[in-house]
Amino acid sequence: MSIYRADLLQGEKILVTGGGTGLGKSMAQAFAAHGAEVIIWGRRGSVLDETAAELREATGGKITGQAVDIRNAGAIDETMQAIFDEGPLTGLVNNAAGNFVSRTEDLSPNAFNAIASIVAHGTFNTTVAAGKRWIAGGHKGNILSIVTTWVWTGGPFTVPSAMSKAGVAAMTQSLAVEWGPKGIRANAIAPGPFPTKGAWERLMPEPLAKKTGAGQGASTIPMRRFGEHIELANLAIFLMSGGCDYLTGEVIAIDGGQWLTSGGNFGSLNNLDDSDWDMIKSAIQSTNAADRAKRTA
Ligand code: HXC
Q1: By alpha-carbon position, which residue is closest to atom 53 of ligand 1?
Q2: Max alpha carbon distance in the chain (Å)?
């Protein structure tokens, strides 16, 4: 059962990047269930169509999928213009991300770009595409970005993600000040372990889970369990609603207290050896290849 009035987000029009799966899908569903019109972006048209249909059925709301790869600045701008031609967005959720666990010395420039082009560049380009239209049209706007607790602790073995997410946290604080006078607010959520397929396969691939036992249980989390998507969605609804318009520039962790007790990052992987990393890399690369095949199918 929801903790909010069913029409709390009536009149809102919210874009969720990476909304076809995982946490983005859960937030999209929650927004639609509370009356918002929702647009979801993702790389795979068929996944978006399926998700949009499923969420329409589940919520009775208006949900549209648009295949946009946020690594492509031109596609972002063109699609954003088409959205605003029909009426301005009221909210943007920067949720799309990419990540994989690796020793940093094993990363090529291309590997760094694979992450940064989504998380840093894609988030910036999407935010500016919405923001400049809000400013030009004199509209209010509300930006919510999904980051990680690594913005405070660093992210050993996930350096491109940690660098990019820290940049998104800096963007959040910067724009809260720069765009605040224009009626635009910007906040971020730093989720801890909320199991999703995309993240788990790349951050806790089977050889790593077997070796460390990590990801199997929740013993390092003070709340002794993983997060439930509805809990993250409830926080996102609150931030996207008009009930807290004075809240801006904040990064809010929702992680069961994990980062305060154990850092919530991969620092413990320091004792893996070369053969462990070979197995981890090949598991991740098979996942990436399988996903690429699905995108081109
Ligand atoms: C070293 C690796 C590697 C590995 C890939 N590479 N895996 N290097 N170790 N394990 C290198 C490749 O060799 C290549 O470089 C480059 O990275 C790009 O690899 P591709 O396989 O071509 O990657 P690509 O198809 O672009 O896919 C990468 C990706 C993918 C876009 C990041 O993982 C993806 O689609 N992810 C979306 C879903 C996802 O990751 N969700 C998790 C988000 S979790 P060379 O030089 O060989 O060309 C998150 C935070 C979670 O953001 C926080 C939890 C607490």
Answers
A1: 148
A2: 57
